[in-house]
Amino acid sequence: MPTMRPIGTITGVPVHVATGLHIDMTECAAVTFQSYVATGDNTLTIKESTGAGTSEQNLVVIDRVETFPGTGGTVTEVTQTAAATFTNADATNDTFSVTVFADQLSAGFTHLEGTVDAGTLVAFQHGLANGRGAASMATPIG
Length: 142
Fold this sequence. Notes:
Number of strands: 10
Number of domains: 1
Structural class: mainly beta
Order of helices and strands: HEEEEEEEEEE
Helix content: under 10%
């Protein structure tokens, strides 16, 4: 049995400096944003657009977030009333993860942008419409 390779079949190329970039959602089912900051608060804002930043607006979909320590520990699920932002003020769980599904975008909107005011932000596409070998994958920036 051949070995399944995650990049290209399960997930797209991770974008390691994702803050402020516009991710094309037309070729995937979801994007997971993961952020880390060593000390202090960290706020994520999610926006949608009709192109790479065209007609940009806040996307009010963040209602469940997973938080966890940067190393080891357990995952804690945080719920909130749906919003376009999430602020992580947990000193122990300094990493968090938010998933946005393509069907949560407003009609006519195709791109997703996540920004953080501190720390790092990585984006992972899931459910690729067209699987392909890793060598022919491009980063999903619009």
